[in-house]
Design brief:
The complex is a heterodimer of chains A (116) and B (114). Chain A has 116 residues and is an all-beta fold. Chain A is built from no helices and 12 strands.
């Protein structure tokens, strides 16, 4: 069964500093990987996705993520965070081949706090 | 603009009562999903539907029921059998051929017990 681990429950970063949120996955075949962001009391918004090809993917709001197969990781990065980036971030993994019963599996999330 | 509308935003349930959460989408998506979100547990899949008049149980379906009579609508009923219904409920949709791929989410319904 597929699984996703986000080892950091809560991260605090100063505004303007760089950010890296960790995501490790477990899946026996080629995964599809996603990062979502959730503001308080709202739904999830897709930041970026990896299906195949270039392992460095660019997303919205200046975020990027790098797929490293050897490390089973898909870490999210941003060179300079803004106060508006404070939110909860979820990594998710899905099967590249849909056999009819495969579903997205979400990590437990990382809450990002930005300090002035 | 296309999107997913969940209502109500807040809902209160009395003991022994069934309540229904609404989810409507105008994205022309075939697949729809219901998730439950609890603090520290991420999203857990309750039910999903890939096509009208068909749906499958997710990981935590006990105490919940759904229907999919129209492509646009996927209501979730939280029954009295669900003993711990207090949570944030999220509805999502995706194009069928993109099943298991990016999903579009509504803004959620927060359910509490009176």
């Amino acid at each position: 069964a597929q699984s996703v681990t986000q080892p950091d429950i809560h991260i605090t970063v100063s505004e303007g500093a760089s950010l890296e949120l960790r995501c490790n996955y477990s899946y026996g075949a080629t995964p599809y990987l996603f990062w979502y962001v959730q503001s308080p009391g709202q739904g999830l918004q897709l930041l970026l996705k990896y299906f195949s090809g270039d392992t460095l993917v660019q997303g919205i709001k200046g975020f990027e993520a790098e797929f490293k197969r050897s490390q089973s990781s898909f870490n999210l990065r941003k060179p300079s965070v803004h106060w508006s980036d404070a939110a909860e971030y979820f990594c998710a993994v899905g099967a590249a081949h849909n056999f009819g019963n495969e579903k997205l599996t979400f990590g437990t999330g990382t809450r990002l706090t930005i300090i002035p | 603009d296309g999107g997913i509308t969940q209502s109500p935003k807040y809902l209160f349930r009395k003991e022994g009562q069934n309540v229904t959460l609404s989810c409507e989408q105008n994205l022309n998506h075939d697949a729809m999903y219901w998730y439950r979100q609890d603090p520290g547990q991420g999203l857990r899949l309750i039910y999903y539907s890939q096509i009208v008049n068909d749906f499958q149980k997710g990981d935590i379906a006990e105490g919940y029921s759904v229907s999919r009579e129209k492509k646009e609508s996927f209501p979730l009923t939280v029954t009295s059998a669900q003993k711990n219904p207090t949570a944030f409920y999220l509805c999502a949709s995706a194009m069928d051929r993109e099943l298991n791929q990016p999903q579009h989410f509504g803004d959620g319904t927060r359910l509490s017990i009176l």
